[in-house]
Amino acid sequence: MATFRLQGSRMLAVDMTGDAVKAKNGSMVAYDGTMIFKKLTGGGEGIRGMVTRRLTNEQMTVMEVKGHGTCWFADHATEISLVGLQGEKLYVESSNLLCTDAGLRTGTTFTGLRGATQGNGVFTTTVEGTGQAALISDGPAVLLRVTKQYPLHVDPGAYVAHQGNLKQSFQSGVTFRTLMGEGGGEAFQIRFEGEGLVYVQASERNTIAGDV
Length: 212
What we know:
212 residues, mainly beta
């Protein structure tokens, strides 16, 4: 299995000994040794994945990198976080996924109104299995824990990913900005309940629903 490690906070180094990884297309910045690069169809999920992603508007263009040596990845100097999975499922916005072990399965799943407010469709990307994944975020990602006693509300534009036994619901109405008199248009929040972790970035992507 490939070894993921960070060199600084904005560069991912992956050591491979005949292993393969799937990475965001165009994210390779350097490599040593011998590497083979191949563009993958439908986010690495084949023709069916390509059709599904076009229908759901959850676009993800990836390449497979395989070889012996070290390959370095980065994306517009965004911050990188490593997530280790042990048979678990990670839910992540496709735009925030940089690289995964080739053995991890990716797909799409319905998430409700949150996708509609973001303009990313009503689906999000899933990563499942045993291995490592690298996430990117605008500024260092903050990892917030959700417990049964303390549910969490997240601005849709700041959401990056989540994992664990969490239930999502989508609420319209007052948000952090509208409380300050700065909001505009229809506003939404994501409410997480249960036990798990949520990754939040320090800025907000544009949304269809206006300033949320």
